[in-house]
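TA notes, week 10

Several of you asked for a full example with nothing omitted. So below is the full record: structure tokens for the whole chain, then the designed sequence directly under it. When grading your own attempts, check the secondary structure regions first.
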């Protein structure tokens, strides 16, 4: 059967064991009432249907109980962040004690650098990618300046090879080997936001540690997208947002990981707040800080319950689907199908800069438009009911999300894109 037919795509949908999960989400509608082809889960995930009931429960608790809601009901607010730990840990390959939902992504990266970027005159460099997400670059530069160093000297930028779009693992490892004695911190993405390239976090962490560097990752595009093992890989820290593949709402509270090997280090510097203080004595209001023996120790203030309720709804929805391994398995097949259609129908007009190997790619495909103006083409497919995103100078990013996207979405997207490019 010809793969470039709607009939074939529908056959794949009928064989998909988690296809019913789409019914657990609110799918945006076009003006004509049809579902959008929503391929922007790498930017903002769709709303699970559980979310409103989870939020309304907490609003009712607040309405009925006031401050007593901290200690009452099925999900009292005082320990609420603990209700998210087990499922969050499964998503990143961690122990529940190693994860916590708090703050925002960039704030968490700053707090992690307070603890894990401790420059000296000999070792003061930070290794990042040349085309890092701007917020990460700003955060790293500001930390270097805060410690009295010059980013021109202390910032090491990894670049793709000439004529290539993605990073080469061998180049990263060689840089670590050559400059590792001067590098205090390696901070790279799990998935590069522009190209969709998955970095080899395990190998990079091993190389960094062999040279005495601390190693952390921005998992904004990796959490909920990849199967990871942060604990087993011995990653020092990581942070991620919960609103992309984790569908917890715009600006949702972020996630954070600190390896348990650091939990008992009382000499580790940190910015402290009372929610990181030992919970057994927190309300004795003593001014001697006693950190919790977990990643919770990096918390500052009591968390926003309504946002955590939305995260709990999303985590429970992912649990319904069977977990990250099930999602990743479908994602590999779904993105591969879309890739095959793009290459078959538009191979000369588009380049897919996302690596083709399963190990080096996640859900996202980044398409460079070779013929015509990419923004004009993007606007045209958007007018036909496709939601994805555009990155200058000429890249269209699409992310078929296994929780709610279908093989028919992939087929219809390529059909619309082909028409727009013609």
């Amino acid at each position: 059967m010809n793969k470039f037919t709607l009939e074939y795509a529908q056959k794949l949908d009928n064989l998909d064991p988690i296809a019913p999960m789409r019914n657990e989400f609110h799918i945006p509608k076009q003006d004509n009432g049809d579902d959008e082809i929503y391929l922007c889960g790498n930017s903002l995930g769709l709303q699970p249907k559980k979310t409103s009931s989870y939020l309304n429960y907490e609003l009712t608790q607040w309405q009925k109980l006031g401050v007593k809601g901290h200690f009452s009901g099925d999900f009292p607010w005082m320990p609420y962040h603990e209700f998210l730990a087990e499922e969050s840990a499964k998503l990143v390959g961690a122990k529940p004690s190693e994860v916590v939902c708090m703050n925002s992504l960039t704030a968490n990266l700053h707090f992690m650098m307070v603890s894990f970027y401790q420059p000296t005159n000999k070792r003061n460099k930070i290794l990042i990618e040349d085309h890092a997400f701007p917020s990460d670059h700003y955060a790293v530069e500001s930390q270097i300046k805060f410690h009295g160093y010059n980013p021109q000297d202390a910032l090491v930028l990894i670049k793709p090879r000439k004529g290539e779009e993605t990073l080469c693992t061998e180049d990263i490892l060689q840089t670590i080997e050559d400059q590792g004695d001067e590098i205090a911190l390696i901070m790279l993405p799990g998935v590069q936001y522009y190209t969709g390239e998955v970095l080899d976090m395990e190998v990079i962490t091993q190389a960094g540690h062999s040279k005495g560097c601390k190693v952390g990752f921005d998992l904004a595009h990796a959490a909920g997208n990849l199967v990871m093992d942060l604990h087993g890989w011995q990653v020092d820290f990581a942070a991620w947002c919960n609103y992309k593949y984790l569908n917890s709402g715009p600006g949702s509270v972020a996630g954070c990981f600190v390896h348990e090997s650091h939990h008992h280090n009382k000499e580790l510097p940190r910015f402290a707040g009372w929610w990181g203080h030992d919970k057994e004595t927190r309300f004795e209001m003593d001014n001697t800080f006693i950190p919790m023996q977990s990643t919770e120790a990096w918390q500052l203030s009591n968390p926003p319950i309504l946002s955590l309720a939305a995260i709990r709804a999303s985590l429970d929805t992912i649990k319904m689907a069977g977990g990250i391994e099930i999602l990743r398995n479908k994602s590999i097949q779904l993105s591969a199908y879309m890739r095959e259609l793009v290459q078959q129908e538009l191979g000369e007009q588009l380049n897919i800069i996302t690596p083709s190997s399963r190990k080096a790619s996640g859900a996202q495909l980044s398409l460079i438009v070779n013929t015509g103006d990419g923004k004009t083409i993007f606007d045209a497919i958007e007018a036909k009911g496709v939601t994805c995103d555009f990155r200058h100078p000429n890249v269209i990013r699409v992310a078929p999300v296994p929780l709610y996207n279908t093989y028919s979405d992939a087929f219809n997207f390529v059909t619309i894109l082909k028409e727009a490019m013609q």
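The chain has two domains: 6-35+325-421, 56-319. Use that as a sanity check on your answer.
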